[in-house]
Every structure is written in structure tokens, then in C-alpha cells.
Design brief:
Blueprint (H helix, E strand, L loop, with lengths): L5 E2 L3 E4 L4 E4 L12 H4 L9 E6 L4 E5 L6 E7 L2 E8 L5 E4 L7 E6 L8 E6 L5 E3 L6 E6 L1 H4 L10 H9 L2 E6 L8 H9 L4 E5 L2 H6 L4 H18 L5 E4 L18 H17 L5 E4 L1 H4 L16 H14 L1 H4 L4
Parallel strand pairs: 12-13, 12-14, 14-15, 15-16
Antiparallel strand pairs: 1-4, 2-3, 4-9, 4-11, 5-8, 5-10, 6-7, 6-9
């Protein structure tokens, strides 16, 4: 299992029993406290195996799962099977594939990390790693980008949006841990990308981890760090989607989501005024606003239907930023 089989991972950890994908550079794990972005960087959200094969069945083997999880198998862009895996499972067996050559993509779980120990196909068949020539899209955000509540790993909003836009996806959605850390700016700066989006604010509100005084300065630092490696790359900054009580109730530091949206908009306008014409802003309320409040399961997180909505709307809503890449 070489790097060529894995897509959407930032790095691969070579273990005695197999290969573990990470969404941070694993050798720099200690620089992403606590425990690798709150333990979320080992989760396989957006990570997939891609192969060109004529097999009728694919089995992915892995170390025993610590939690129940789901995996998807796509063939030539169509989902052909979703598997629900129990705690302790060690294999995902996808069968009933067409015998002719096809592009297969296996999406790993959005809620746990995995160590892949092997990949099996029919004895008489062949398989080679499948390259992805599409534009590279990095998206950074919170649990609303990690999308644990999606109906399956290929039905998160980033996965749906990537398919609609024709992008190859790297998802940096870290549930509860989108705090604009400097190392995240350095990570995105150093990764190849043809377009970048970030959706920030809601974790900072919930944890009261940043005051209004610091918030705008931290966002400027994040964007300027990214620009050190991507001076002309389309960069879209999205403010929080609708957050029910968070719209009117200040957090411990006096922030509300409307105040955050205004700070984000002002920051983007400031940097555009300084010449960054490839930097764009989108109000999250345009993406999922009060009219779609019924799509939120707990007043904050969309459910499966909500993630479908966001994924379908992404291409047309953000065409002004990324349309030239479609």
C-alpha cells in the first residue's frame, strides 16, 4: 500500500501492521496539540482509496474498529454499496461490481481513524492506483465540515461539492477544533492546492477560545500565512451558517455569530483592499440560513439532509470564487 492508493490524506503513518492515514503531517504530530487537533486529525473524513480494476469484489482489511463506522464504494462515480461496520470489524467486503475495467473509489469513515492492513481483489483480476488529475481543493472547518452525521462518507457536503465541481478533495474538518491555529495556516500554505475554502467561527464561539480583540488579528494571520504559499490561489472565506440561539446569545467573551460574520467580512474586505483580488467572502447565512433551520438537528449541526443541501448548493453559491476551475 503506497501513497498512490490514498487520496485526501495529508500523510501516511507506516505501522508494523499497516498504513494509517492522517490529516496532518504525522511526523509533526506534537506540533498540533492537544493530541493532533483534539484527536481529530487521525479521523479519515474525506480520505479514500482509488484504483482502476476489473475485479467484481474489493475487500479492504484494517485493524479492529474501536467504534461502529460506515464505508462507501463508488464505481465510475456512482455509489454502488455502503457498508455499516460494527465495533471490532476487520474487513469491508464490497461485491457485485461489474467485470469490466472501472474506476473504484472507497471512502473511509468520517468518525474514526483506521489502519489499513491490506486490499484484496479477485484472483484473476488486476488493479492499479488511480491518479486524480482534477483541480485540488482544500477545505478547512469544524464538525460541520467533518460531517459525522452525513448518511455515508461519500455524502458529506465536501464530497458532494467536490463531485459537482470536478475537484479532488482534501477535507480538514476537525470537529470542535477549528480554532485557526498557526500550524493549520502553515499546513495549508505548504500543501498543493488549486482552490481553498475555510469556514471559521463556530468552534471559537462555542469554546470562547478567542476574544473579539484577537479574532480578526488571528484570521488575518491565518490568511496571510496561507498566502505565503498560494499568492494567487482562489481563497474563499465562509462565515458561520445559521446557529439558532448563537445568533443572539453572547458567549463568555461577548461574541455572537452576527458579530463574527461582520468581523470576517471586514477582514476579507481589508485584505482585498490591499490587493488580494483572489480572496473572497461568503456569508454563511446564504448557504444555510434561518429558512433552513429545520435541517439542523440540534440547533447547530445539519443532519444528513442538511449536508446534502449544503453540498448541492456549494457549486452555484460559490461560483464567483471557483467558477473558472469548473
Amino acid at each position: 500500500m503506497t501513497e498512490a492508493w490514498f487520496h485526501g490524506a495529508v500523510s501516511l503513518e507506516r505501522r508494523e501492521g499497516g498504513v494509517k492515514p492522517w490529516r496532518i503531517p504525522y511526523p509533526d504530530y506534537d506540533l498540533y496539540p492537544p493530541e493532533g487537533i483534539g484527536g481529530k486529525a487521525e479521523i479519515c473524513a474525506g480520505v479514500r482509496l482509488r484504483l482502476r480494476t476489473d475485479t467484481t469484489a474489493v475487500t479492504v482489511a484494517f485493524e479492529p474498529l474501536a467504534e461502529a463506522a460506515a464505508m462507501d464504494c463508488m464505481a465510475d462515480g456512482q455509489r454502488c454499496q455502503m457498508l455499516s461496520l460494527a465495533v471490532g470489524a476487520t474487513e469491508a467486503n464490497f461485491s457485485g461490481l461489474a467485470r469490466d475495467a472501472k474506476d473504484v473509489e472507497i471512502w473511509l469513515p468520517t468518525n474514526i481513524g483506521m489502519t489499513i492492513t491490506g486490499l484484496r481483489i479477485d484472483r484473476e483480476s488486476t488493479a492499479v492506483p488511480l491518479l486524480d488529475p482534477r483541480p485540488r481543493w482544500i477545505t478547512y472547518g469544524s464538525s460541520i465540515t467533518q460531517c459525522v452525521a452525513a448518511s455515508s462518507p461519500s455524502r458529506t457536503w465536501p464530497a458532494i461539492a467536490a463531485e459537482a465541481c470536478g475537484f479532488q478533495l482534501t477535507s480538514l474538518g476537525f470537529s470542535g477544533n477549528c480554532h485557526m491555529e498557526p500550524m493549520i495556516g502553515r499546513l495549508i500554505r505548504d500543501m498543493p492546492a488549486d482552490c481553498i475554502s475555510i469556514c471559521v467561527g463556530v468552534n471559537i464561539y462555542s469554546a470562547s477560545s478567542m476574544s473579539p480583540r484577537l479574532f480578526k488579528a488571528q484570521l488575518i494571520g491565518l490568511l496571510e500565512t496561507i498566502r505565503e504559499g498560494h499568492s494567487e490561489t482562489p481563497l474563499l472565506v465562509i462565515s458561520p451558517i445559521y446557529g439558532t440561539t448563537r445568533e443572539t446569545e453572547p458567549n463568555l467573551l461577548g461574541f455572537t455569530l452576527p458579530l463574527m460574520r461582520e468581523a470576517i467580512r471586514e477582514t476579507v474586505e481589508l485584505l482585498r483592499g490591499r490587493g488580494d483580488r483572489q480572496l473572497y467572502y461568503q456569508d454563511g447565512l446564504n448557504w444555510l440560513g434561518p429558512a433552513e433551520a429545520a435541517l439542523l438537528t440540534d440547533g447547530l449541526h445539519p443532519g444528513a439532509e442538511g449536508y446534502e443541501w449544503m453540498g448541492r448548493r456549494f457549486r452555484t453559491l460559490h461560483e464567483y470564487a471557483f467558477g473558472a476551475l469548473y
